[in-house]
Design brief:
40% of the residues lie in helices and 17% in strands. By secondary structure, it is of the alpha/beta class.
């Protein structure tokens, strides 16, 4: 199927769910992303700051860009002026930097941020523990921030075909979300996102409560890592 057909397929699949699609465009050129844009899609995810900045300059500025890859503090300033959401906040240090850079640009809207929780058995994947997320939200530094808005949690599951394992990891992330919602955001309607599920497991993720799936190859085809 074409990129347009893939976008329309996911639109139909998600129509009666609370879940949204993040089209993960990493390694794909701007003209490919434009095909998805022309099909009506506006929410795209990138892993690397440099690639995101380069593509942003080539594409319409009503795209809502999500940074979903690991973010180093020294790269925040490159995206703070325009980024919609940073899904991969994995430390208080990073959140402090995001708030600082957003303030420097005097953003009228805060940068939406999601706390990346470690749910996989793989050391190569980033993320906080539940206890670290608790500590971040209880910190004085966080309470003083005015230019960031915590909107939910994100997790990257183990790369496995074991459905029971995936289901358990997704369920754990949903439990983390519920804990944080009840403890810190009970009356805050902006804290509503559970970002989990990718091309190979998005249906399972939705069944376990995902509100945002991150799909790349299922829309754009296999990635070209030589770029």
């Amino acid at each position: 199927m074409s990129i347009k057909d893939n976008i329309l397929y996911f639109d139909e699949q998600l129509r009666n769910t609370p879940c949204r699609l993040v089209a993960v465009s990493k390694t794909h050129p701007a003209e490919t992303i434009k095909e998805a844009y022309d099909a009506g899609h506006r929410l795209f995810g990138e892993n690397k700051v440099q690639e995101l900045v380069e593509k942003r300059d080539l594409l319409p500025h009503d795209i809502a860009w999500h940074l979903i890859g690991h973010l180093q503090t020294n790269k925040v300033k490159q995206i703070a002026q325009f980024i919609d959401t940073i899904q991969s906040v994995d430390s208080l240090k990073l959140l402090v930097e995001i708030n600082k850079r957003a303030e420097q640009f005097n953003r009228t809207l805060p940068i939406k941020c999601m706390l990346q929780i470690s749910i996989a058995d793989e050391e190569t994947k980033y993320g906080m523990t539940m206890e670290e997320a608790d500590a971040l939200l209880q910190s004085e530094e966080y309470r003083l921030m005015k230019f960031v808005q915590i909107t939910g949690v994100m997790g990257i599951a183990t790369n496995t075909e074991n459905q029971d394992k995936l289901r358990g990891e997704f369920r754990y992330l949903r439990e983390c979300y519920s804990h944080l919602k009840e403890k810190f955001f009970f009356t805050n309607n902006d804290f509503k996102e559970i970002s989990m599920g990718m091309t190979s497991d998005w249906k399972l993720a939705i069944a376990e409560g995902s509100t945002m799936i991150r799909v790349g190859s299922g829309i754009f085809g296999n990635r070209n890592y030589k770029q």
